[in-house]
Design goal:
36% helix, 13 helices, 9-stranded antiparallel sheet, 5-stranded antiparallel sheet, binds zinc ion, 409 residues, alpha+beta, Thermophilic metalloprotease-like
């Protein structure tokens, strides 16, 4: 991959993804394996006028060693300086850029119960800070190819070829070519999203009914104030940013506690470095009452047990089968990409910013209204070639939204 093209990508992440403003602080999280790319991102942050950039480094292999060798008690503890850092984040509100590149199977062999226990304990301490920061800062997630990840996606290729191929696929998905101006392309993409959401919001759907031949037969309820969102968004300080690069989905926040029927997954799900495959979830009264997985059922069960809201839905998203990432025909084993190649649903926390008028409401009011709350937000893919989604509006009209996996409206 050309250096100048990779540099252009780093600039896109900073200018369009996080949209770093003059005088802002930035926190970048990145694997030590991607230090060169991270340096390009940090350079672009300073060029955009950042006053201070800090990098949270991590390394998959070391994380795995920590999980293997530390006790649950040690793993669960948030140290004083770690909490102080979180407090600083909540006050300073730095832009956050996450550069992901991890092996989707990188935590294979680590006890999922141990991981779950430790992460829940830590998340509990961190949650008040996260809530205090919610919707107040710009953030973005973007990917660069790690070697293990590339080999997982393209197992038949040599390591270097696989990495190159994954670079091509990633850059194509975010509209970066050797000779274009991707920032201009994203302006057009965001304008298209705005139009698509406006169109969907005019209907005011109360329910969505999903059916496909794989066994999916599922109904979810929306709220009168659930807005469809997609592409870029504004934080509460009025800064525009693109939280995911790439992004194809339009999504909304459903009514918690109101979902019935069965959803069958159509792609594997990498959750905390472990792959859950061929699974289905059955809902009653809005909650998962049964889950089955051919691989890593235990991981799935632990995930659903995380907290009270983890068994309920926080997001429904529409992605046509005929769309740029889906048409690549690549299984990325990474939600950032796979969720943009398929209709998906998320268990856990709902997006408050999909609610009309959320700016003037408290967290409690939003939860009262029906936005789900949880420490997790995990998307899983349910899109299929024959997926049909029929919406019913609040005034009782039935509208076919999706037919044969694509938009019908
Ligand atoms: Zn989504
Ligand atoms: Zn999601």
């Amino acid at each position: 991959m050309k250096k100048s093209t990779i540099k252009k990508y780093a600039r896109l992440i900073v200018r369009v993804g996080a949209n770093v403003q003059k005088g802002q602080s930035v926190t970048v999280s990145c694997s030590t394996n991607q230090a060169d790319f991270c340096a390009l991102v940090v350079d672009e942050c300073y060029k955009a006028g950042a006053k201070y950039v800090t990098v949270d480094w991590y390394n998959d292999r070391i994380t795995k060693l920590d999980y293997r060798n530390q006790s649950v008690r040690t793993l669960s503890k948030v140290l004083e300086w770690q909490e102080a850092k979180m407090k600083w984040n909540a006050e300073e509100l730095p832009c956050r850029i996450a550069i992901i590149s991890d092996d989707p199977d990188g935590m294979k062999g680590v006890d999922p119960v141990k991981v779950q226990k430790a992460q829940v304990a830590r998340a509990k301490v961190m949650k008040p800070y996260r809530d205090a920061m919610n919707a107040k800062y710009q953030w973005t997630i973007a990917a660069v190819p790690g070697e293990a990840w590339a080999k997982k996606v393209f197992p038949g290729l040599r390591k270097s070829q696989a990495v190159e191929k994954l670079w091509q696929a990633i850059l194509e998905s975010v509209y970066v070519t050797d000779d274009n101006d991707p920032i201009a392309v994203w302006e057009k993409v965001n304008a298209d999203f705005k139009e698509r959401c406006r169109h969907l919001n005019e209907y005011r759907f109360e329910t969505l009914h999903y059916t496909s031949s794989n066994g999916t037969d599922f109904t979810v309820w929306l709220m009168p104030r659930s807005n469809w969102c997609g592409g870029g968004e504004y934080d509460l300080n009025g800064h525009y940013f693109n939280p995911n690069m790439p992004t194809i989905e339009v999504f909304t926040t459903p009514m918690k506690g109101k979902a019935e029927g069965k959803l069958v997954s159509t792609k594997p799900l990498s959750y905390r470095g472990q792959l859950i495959e061929n699974f289905s979830l059955t809902f009653k009264g809005g909650k998962v009452v049964n889950c089955e997985a051919e691989k890593n059922q235990k991981v799935l069960e632990e995930m659903i047990k995380t907290d009270e809201g983890a068994c309920m839905i926080g997001e429904v998203a529409l992605v046509p089968q005929d769309s740029p990432i889906s048409n690549q025909g690549i299984l990325y084993y990474e939600t950032l990409f796979d969720e943009n190649a398929s209709c998906h649903v998320a268990l856990g926390e709902g997006y408050v910013d999909c609610i009309e008028g959320y700016e003037t409401m408290t967290k409690e009011e939003l939860h009262e209204l029906g936005v789900n709350d949880s420490m997790i937000h995990v998307d899983f893919m349910v899109g299929a070639k024959d997926l049909k989604i029929v919406g019913k509006t609040f005034d009782g009209k039935e509208v076919t939204i999706f037919r044969d996996g694509n938009f019908a409206i």
